[in-house]
């Protein structure tokens, strides 16, 4: 079976087709960087989707990713529980990648995906110097992932099929 990877981007903040956060969902930036939290979130959100590329990473590798100046993390909470998260990583040219984005499995189907993605896009564009926002997803991701990215204004600019 083959896997299709979709690369999507947005060139201007006016392209955001946002959904407001529900009143019972709060999103907080982790301003004090803790690589252990990012590793936990990666596993919590990524396990249902087979996120495995960083499972074997050492503390030093996690620290190097998370503690760089151009890496930021936000966590979404619903009634005190972690509902999801996203990480942004900006390159030297100002392109911001939504490096990781997702909901915790217990919060699927509650309508949080669109508002959280809107928040991620707004946060990326609010970061001074941002020139472009991009993300990639694949056919192994949640069945609604690609539709959510498109519904928020991101456009596919490349597809890759791998066996």
UniProtKB/TrEMBL annotation:
Metal-binding found in the keyword field: no
Entry keyword annotation includes Transferase: yes
CDD domains reported for this sequence: NAT_SF (cd04301)
InterPro entries attached to this UniProt entry: Acyl_CoA_acyltransferase (IPR016181), GNAT_dom (IPR000182)
Gene Ontology terms for molecular function: acyltransferase activity, transferring groups other than amino-acyl groups
Entry keyword set: Transferase
Boundaries of every N-acetyltransferase domain copy: 28-163
One of the Pfam families matching this protein, by short name: Acetyltransf_1
Name of the molecule in the record: Acetyltransferase (GNAT) domain-containing protein
Organism: Pseudomonas borbori
Taxonomic placement: Bacteria, Pseudomonadati, Pseudomonadota, Gammaproteobacteria, Pseudomonadales
